[in-house]
Design goal:
CATH class of the largest domain: Mainly Alpha
Number of domains: 4
Radius of gyration: 40 Å
Keywords: ATP-binding, Cell membrane, Glycoprotein, Hydrolase, Membrane, Nucleotide-binding, Transmembrane, Transmembrane helix, Transport
Membrane topology: Multi-pass membrane protein
Helix content: 55-70%
Largest sheet: 6 strands, mixed
CATH superfamily of the largest domain: ABC transporter type 1, transmembrane domain
Organism: Stachybotrys elegans
Shape: elongated
Protein name: P-loop containing nucleoside triphosphate hydrolase protein
InterPro entries: AAA+_ATPase (IPR003593), ABC1_TM_dom (IPR011527), ABC1_TM_sf (IPR036640), ABC_transporter-like_ATP-bd (IPR003439), ABC_transporter-like_CS (IPR017871), ABC_transporter_C-like (IPR050173), ABCC_6TM_D1 (IPR044746), ABCC_6TM_D2 (IPR044726)
Strand order of the largest sheet: 5-6-7-3-8-9
Amino acid sequence: MTSSLFGSPAYRDALSCPASSDQDFGPRINPTCRAFDFTLAFEDAFFSLIVSAVFLAISPWRIWHLSRSSVKVASFRLALSKIAVIATLTVLHLAFTVVRLQSKDLYTPISSASGALSVIASFSSLCQSFFHDQRSVKPSDVLILYFSASFILGLPRLRTLWSLDAEDASKALWTLILIFTILAIVVESIHKTRALRPAYKLVTVEQTIGFWSRGFFVWLLPMFRAGYSTVLRLKDVPEVDIDLQEQTTRTDLRNSFGRSRAEKFRLLRTTLACNKAGLLLVVIPRIILSVFRFAIPFLIERAVAQLNSPNDETNRYFGQSLVGAFVLVYVGIAVSKAVYWHMAYRVLARIRAGLTGLIYQHTIHLRACDVQHSAALTLMGTDVERIVETLRLMHEIWASVPEIAVAVWLLSRQVSYAALLPVSVCLASIAATSLVAKRFGPAQRQWVEGVEKRVAATSDALGNIKTVKMLGFETHVSQMIRKLREIELQISSKFRTLLVWSIVLSNAPSDIAPFATLAVSAVIAITTSQSALQVSQVFSSLAIISMVTEPLVMFCQALPNFTQAVSCFGRIEKFLLLAPATQTPAEDSSPSLALDNLPRAATDSGSIFRFQNATISWGSEDGDAVLHDLTADIKPGFTAIIGPVGAGKTTLLSSLIGETFAAQGAMSNPLSYVAFSPQTPWIMDDTIARNITAGQGTDVDAKWMDICIDRCGLRADIESFPSGLQSPTGPNGSFLSGGQRQRVALARAMYSKRSVVILDDITSGFDPATSKEVVAQLFSRDGHFRKAGISVVLATHDMRLLHLMDNLIVLECGKIVRSGPSTDIVSQMPSLAADENGPNGAISQGSEVKSGEESRANDSTEERPPHDARATSLLDEQRQQGNWSVYRYYAGSAGIWPIASWVVCTLAGAVISTYTTIWVDEWISSSSGGESADNLGLYLSIYSLLVVATVASTLGECFVFIVTIIKNTASNLHSDLLNSTLKAPLSFFLETDTGSIVNRFSQDMNLIDMSLPLQAIQFMSGFAYCFVRLIVIAILGRYLAAAVPVMGLAVFLVQRYYLRTSRQVRLLEIETKAPLYTHFTDSIKGVATIRAYHLEDTFGERLGELLNQSQKPFYMLSLIQQWLTLVLDLMVGGLAVMLVAVALSLTGSRISAGALGVALVLSLQFNNLLSHTILAWTKFETSVGAVARVQQFVQTTPEEHVGTPVPAREWPVEGTVEFDGMTACYLPQGPPVVLDVNLKIESGEKLAICGPSGSGKSSLIMALLKLVEVREGRILVNGTDIAAFQNSDLRSHLNPIPQEPYFLPGTFKFNLDPHGQTDEATLISALKKVKLWEKVEAKGGLDTELVMSELSVGERQLLSLARAILVPSKILILDEAMSNVDENTEAFMQDIIMSEFKDRTIIAVMHRYSYINQFDKVLVMRKGRMVECDKPSVLLGRDSMFRKLYHSNY
């Protein structure tokens, strides 16, 4: 057996082997000694001495580092096993060294040094093993790599020893050394989770496994099995370790950013510096990967040349060695690539967590005006994601430079000066791509702006969908959003065309460079009478050319992307440099602490806040002033800020918490650690409990919360909710009524126990009973705020609160007209006293107040829509296996002919590109066969045509999809989504999270517009190229064809095993982003409240929790994609090894040298293509998930009743309204909210609808507007049953004014007259009637863009009234239209309504009764039923329910 394996002894003796052959460095031994082997000296130097020296150089540092760490393991059991194995290994090395030094046959000049270093290294590994076992939670990578390298490099020596006539002792000892080396690898790889001390038990799986388990991703297999067999949940995804979590990464980045003094690229430099250890470690496996890759051309050349060599014994051994070399190289490529990307993805995960956390932390420290203008959400989402995506190729940029240089040098050895042509072609491609890329920025910026406008308009419409439907604006909204979509697509067409040319130009070198190089080389050979190119040269050159073009193309693609990342870093840096709002944090609730160290205004201990001649503006010190020459002291106690609409009350309150700037004069430092509730209460999309505790989910004082709930009148509401305190509030509190939102905000203020409470019109949404109860519980002499000594600063329109105040500040036109004690101000302004002591009476200061529970005990769906009952995620089966109907739906939206054209272009490109390599074989074979050079022109002409056809196919493929198909799908899918959304009944929006719908229009449309096309092209192109190449490889490989079905089956099983898990992890990644975005959005909306409460740390911790949850699927998705690449690399490597083995090892394989070269080059390309294709398929399925969500939404969203149009444009001719036994409900299966209402309203009659909260007031008018479902009875308008009418058409013929005004994006003119049927003079007249024309004129007139933020709440309501004046409908509907305005504005609006609509029917829902006598009748509702309906005087004159309501309205 020995002679058959290592050569015949007779053969060696006959050729007389030189005695000193093994003492030379070789590396190859003289063939007369051994058929094919290394010299002993070479093995000593490179397989032993160098490895030991490197290990010994690292060992002292590792031992020193470990010695400084704490002991983490509670047991010595595993350590003793390691010591036993490594000690035995050390003894064996010592014994082998002794035996060897005594043998002349094994002696070399460096054998002593090599043996000594091996013994010392083994002993050093013994010490390091013990320290690492006790002081580290994971196995030692250094030891595992050292023992692995020793084993692999020890195999050639074992072969050498058994081929020599050496002593049996050396052979046995070295065999034992290798066996114990394997044992050392095994014991060093054992994890020690169970033996860890309690403090270190919570480490992740990744932290406890060895190098090879991580390198081959063995630790991911349990998750793959779970994903294949069950539906993955977030808990099934492994946790990320502390180095990848938000707190660690954000703290490192923040500290480094704060220390940096760099003037340029500060954030970029800081980010790289924070991750320098990880970035530098990635360099090692990346260099090793390059080395293995460069070995492939040499192997191809040697394999092809070997086929033309004589079939003697030496060449047979050489062929077997080549097969082994192929195995080593392909395994090396697979493992080094896996390790490289694993380490790279860890760095990317750190960067993602650090930047996201840093952006959020800075956001919640900014003023609200700065946050609104900074697009912080875009920075956290788009910019961070783009940075992570582009930095993924960061190492490819630097690695491509030496790879290109080495590849060009290697190529020059084959084709001389023609080696410069691939570089020239690539540089030309880069230049052309750069010219295209210059236009990318402006084109993409315009497109993004178009997307932002459309999404903002859509989000605004959906956020006000109830108002949109009340106004009958569905058609206007649809037309507006469609127009914005058309503009967006028109703008994006330029970008998409540029993108097509960029793709074609960047990929062209892979086709053009081989042609140019081989053509010029052939021409040079003929003109200089050189020998023709050989087959081995050509296919080695093709492999090297790909190693030139691929790094250059990668460089060409990665560098512009890196510049995009730099731009993203720049935008984030600019945001981080925005000055935070200055605060003086306080650790306790003492008000005086907030006044310490006030350099801008002297403040005595008796003031909470002081203004001294201050001129206040929003946005910046140079902004338009809102408050002028403000001088005031806000003292402890109760202070009210009063004044007409637009006087500056909100601005003054915002100044207290640092939201404004003092352009002139001075004001105190902003208050912190105070309770604050803005005019529109800030409600998070969370539970009621978490809103009351301001996001604090743990350490809740349940007893104190119960007290707060009772004092704020929330007990009955919460008890009526299905989940009580754990009931969701919905986006912006959409599941709560306006009054409930305000009471939750009050409960939050009370629960916080802050010493200063700042409230902005907090009672505007309360009904009389609730208002009386809450005010008595909190503000009266016996109220909580008084008893607790809490100072209250509030802006209010309700003059009847003033007698409870200690001090008043009266504002008019941005100036203080009066300030001082409330008694003095009231005496100076008799109108305030009259209001205070009006017919309803002032609230009692000490009397016991009856609970308002009865009035709220039956809160209906009107006030509390149910939680989201419709699942927006895909079905579990679809999560695992997908849904093929989605592809049919997408193809239908794209069109048959565009899809067919795309497929034809793709297949043509794959066939032509593959045939090009076969054509090169034909050409070179003919040249080697002695054919005349006259045929060179023919071969080159056909070759050039094939190259041109390949590039043209790529151009056609990209153009058809990116330009034509996108235009169709983007328009059609968006139209389907928009139609389904606007046609859905209101009940759908009450059940469905509005944020999830907005996500369809933003993220899903973005995936459909951009990501899906690129990934579809990558997948389809890769699939076609892989399919064609595999067929050609099978044909050329002859016997290999039998293995192709097996490999196809293996690929199918792998992708099926992989896709089930990757699909679910990708969905989990998307799903875990949703709460992250929700929290970020909530924080942006409530940033002023967060800072006022001094809750930045609490919300930062919550962001950290959500981000850490999001990190899990993000990181794992990257790793499982790399697992797929590893498996495919090994499979394709196995294919190449089988091909070489069949060609070189089997006699009569009949595989020609050219065929082997073609097959090996194609297999080299097939490797990358296959992994990229499956990865593209995974990403494509993710993007198709957006289509699936659109399809599911369209299929499952209910549609409003499709009826007939109203009879005529002037309908209703008369304003009669009749409810005939009408019972209505919000949901088809829900409880009724209005029951058995029988009521007739005559034309021109004025009806006021009153009742406690939840009594069904708004539900009644919503039934009239067909916003709720009429279950029984009917509603007649103008004598016609409205059930037959189309809903939106009916609403457009009525004239509602909702409680919350809504305006479309556009001009004042468009918003006043969306139909465009009124002349400008009439529009101006309407504005003059509501006293808004001067303000509109000052802004530029009717054609000026309407900016909501520039109007106060009262001014918006007046603008709504102006719009209603222009509507000719006979029926006016008021849904608490004056609840958010002051009494002067209310009186003004009431006068306009009674004068402008005196001949029309008016139906008004109200809870203020100051002008009740102007109505003809009052309808009182309770628990959804009519209680009474009569003239106001009649009801007030008897013991009626309305009389009780009237007198409770203080």
